[in-house]
Amino acid sequence: MTSVVQTAQSTRFVCRSYMAVVLVPEPPIVEWVAELEQKIKDAGHFLAASPVVLDLSAVKLSKSAITHLVAELNHRGVRVMGLENTDPAATGEGLPPLVRSSRGVTTNLGAPETPVSQPRPRPATLLLDKPIRSGQSIFFPDGDVTVLGSVSSGAEIVAGGSIHIYGALRGRAMAGSSGNAQARIFCSKIEAELLAIDGYYMTADSLDQGLRDRAVQAWLEGNELKITALE
Amino acid sequence: MAKVVVVTSGKGGVGKTTSTAALGAALAQIGQNVVIVDFDVGLRNLDLVMGAERRVVYDFINVTQGVAKLSQALIRDKRLDKLALLPASQTRDKDALTEDGVLSVITALRKMFDWVICDSPAGIERGATLAMRFADEAIVVTNPEVSSVRDSDRIIGILDAKTVRAERGERVGKHLLITRYDQVRAARGEMLTIDDVLEILSTPLLGIVPESEQVLRASNLGSPVTLSNPGSGPARAYFDAARRLMGEDIEMTIPTEKQSLLGKLFGRRAA
Counting one residue from A and one from B, how many pairs have CB atoms under 8 Å apart? Predict the structure, then answer.
């Protein structure tokens, strides 16, 4: 789960990941709620204490039905912080926001002793061997992103770790997005629209013109984004 | 084995329809069996550029809805017996196109022709995505200016994501056709250079069509430039592009109007 916090003074965007319990309602809903109620009676402590995300992929519910379901769960002490895998039109005012997880996580109600699924070991680097085209958005909160081609104007890369681009960077690169001030951005030719590390950003206008088209790296020093030529 | 080619760009007004007509005619003049299909439902233009507007009875949508047979909707070109046109509907909009309907028409056309050339509408919405949906290859038409190049880049990304071939994990062959190239303005630095465009789009070049009055005149005459003025610069650029599309290895040049400038080779080949 990712939250975006914006403070008025510095327009600094911070993304953070949180653990949440994912519940997957299945039809018939009435029986599912009854079963859940029984589970809460047996081992309710974790559900009462945890933020919960409702994965609605197995059911097709209207906005009023979702509102009703969230109220029913709330009544049973289950607080829903987000909805997943449903039509954006079926959400909105009065309902928790839509969230998007980077991987499928389900909590097996039959095994309450492992309520939160253990994070599986995943590769810490995402390797992309094709150019990133305008309009494409790469979101990899788990580690570094390496791009062998160029990143076009209008494309963006958001990485939890560092970003390495072996072609030209013409779009946006946001490194350290999940709060990693050590993350860096490397590219072999900079024509970037925007650079950001851990929420501190720099637009094309503030980029030193002497560095344009050169190989550079960017890093964070205190609250300042630094950029220098490589070579 | 028939090839389905989509002519697309993202941006409007860069020369998709003109290029579809000229390349379709060039392929037919070389002896290939060609059909050009207008996907711009609601803003039909290809019939005008082909000079067939008075002969349209049934259209693409009529065929997908079973109102007419494909053979009734196809218009044989009067000048080239190997060239046919499937017009779009002018009275409907893009929502009238369905994926199943497009698939059935494309499948039938594959059996009848060597080349099925789909003229995509501008944009990245339903009409454009359905035009590319079943394509084997794509011709991305780009003008040497920044907005056109960025939109082409976007379209290339969509070609790699939303076509049937891409979803199967296969490749959609992509070719870049640079149109409205003005050598004088490029030399003055008022346009992106060919190298700039190729570097940004990293897609093999199919051809460079010079900016020319001949193209505008041809469109207004209702005759593709390869038919109305086959010796002109743009016509020769389209003939070369058609031959490259067929797999021939032809040196990349920017054909100009005067024969004396023909030698201006462009030290670059289609990759």
Answer: 35
